[in-house]
Specification:
Number of strands: 11
Shape: elongated
Largest sheet: 5 strands, parallel
Distance between the termini: 40 Å
CATH class of the largest domain: Alpha Beta
CATH superfamily of the largest domain: Glucose-6-phosphate isomerase like protein, domain 1
Strand content: 15-25%
Radius of gyration: 29 Å
Order of helices and strands: HHEHEHEHEEHHHEHEEHHEHEEH
CATH architecture of the largest domain: 3-Layer(aba) Sandwich
């Protein structure tokens, strides 16, 4: 079997990373004017590109739409066969092409200009004649493609993608896009869960919520913990308020101290005044508490500190929240 050249992979990552870093110097007046133009438009951003630039364009359009900047991708060749009708007068075109030397782009640009559509170009050849008449040019020039022959679009497409993300996020921020807006646009999947799912949707409740009274023994607590398959239990006083928490970790630590631990009162070994969370807390915020405190479970209580459930780290992980 031929030996795999890991150095090629290392060089690729270094070259593409450097190409992205080099784009910082291209954040000039043209970039900021492009931000202003997109921010102020009442229409959409129509992203266009061919080949690899077209694939990057699809991703940029998707990113913009997901952060509150209405956008869609149109293929330049399809535009020449009727899809120009999708473009409205208030739209802004973002044209992606490293060289601009493709017939479809050369043919579609004059048509867009006759339609009086604002055109932003992202290119590595800012002085190319093909861009004459375009409104703004964002420089995405790179020093070298990661391709060993300096031909296949690699570093150039990485740079273009990063600039597109930068453009999308700056405009999004300018438009006042908030976390709550992101939640509305991502109702399903990991993003939606992190932004909308609260503790009440994940916590174990009812018979699955282990609770013992403060006069219980450690043996009683272990029976409840085993029956609910949770490695912890809340401890409540006579009024039903949570006054303690006992975990299997507590058991392992205490068994080294107390030989007859099973017959001890739970109040002798429990954690008093434990950390708790409320059911309306975002699950992702509760997950941070578990991580920061290095604990696996936490009681869920109401405003009167009465137990409503228990939040288990495994349940958070199963929902993709960590």
């Amino acid at each position: 079997m031929k030996k795999i050249n890991i150095e090629r992979a290392v060089d690729t990552l270094k070259l593409e990373a450097q190409a992205i870093i080099d784009q910082i110097s291209h954040l000039d007046d043209n970039f900021t004017e492009a931000v202003s133009l997109i921010e102020k438009t009442s229409g959409r951003v129509i992203v266009m590109g061919l080949g690899k630039s077209g694939l990057i364009g699809r991703k940029i359009a998707a990113t913009m739409s997901s952060v509150g900047v209405p956008a869609m991708f149109l293929h330049p060749a399809e535009c020449l066969h009727g899809d120009l009708g999708m473009i409205m007068k208030n739209d802004v075109v973002l044209m992606l092409s490293y060289t601009g030397e493709t017939d479809e782009i050369k043919q579609v640009l004059p048509v867009l200009q006759r339609m009086k559509i604002k055109i932003i170009v992202m290119t590595g050849r800012i002085k190319s004649q093909v861009w004459q008449g375009c409104d703004l040019i964002i420089n995405s020039e790179i020093k070298k493609e990661a391709c060993p022959y300096n031909l296949a679009p690699t570093s150039s497409t990485s740079a273009m993608l990063a600039l597109g993300d930068a453009l999308a996020l700056v405009v999004s921020e300018r438009k006042g896009f908030k976390k709550e807006n992101l939640a509305l646009l991502h109702p399903l999947g990991a993003i939606g869960k992190k932004l909308t799912m609260d503790v009440s949707a994940i916590m174990r409740k009812g018979k699955a919520n282990p609770v013992v009274k403060e006069n219980a023994t450690v043996k009683d607590a272990l029976l409840v913990m085993t029956g609910t398959r949770v490695g912890a239990t809340s401890v409540v006083d006579k009024s039903g308020r949570v006054v303690g928490f006992f975990t299997d970790g507590d058991l392992r630590r205490q068994v080294q101290i107390h030989k007859d631990i099973l017959n001890l009162k739970i109040t002798q070994v429990m954690t008093k005044k434990p950390l708790t969370v409320h059911p309306d807390m975002l699950a992702v915020d509760a997950a941070k508490i578990l991580q920061e405190k290095n604990i696996d479970n936490i009681p869920v209580v109401d405003k009167n500190d009465k137990p409503l459930g228990i939040l288990d780290e495994r349940d958070l992980l199963s929902e993709g929240i960590e």
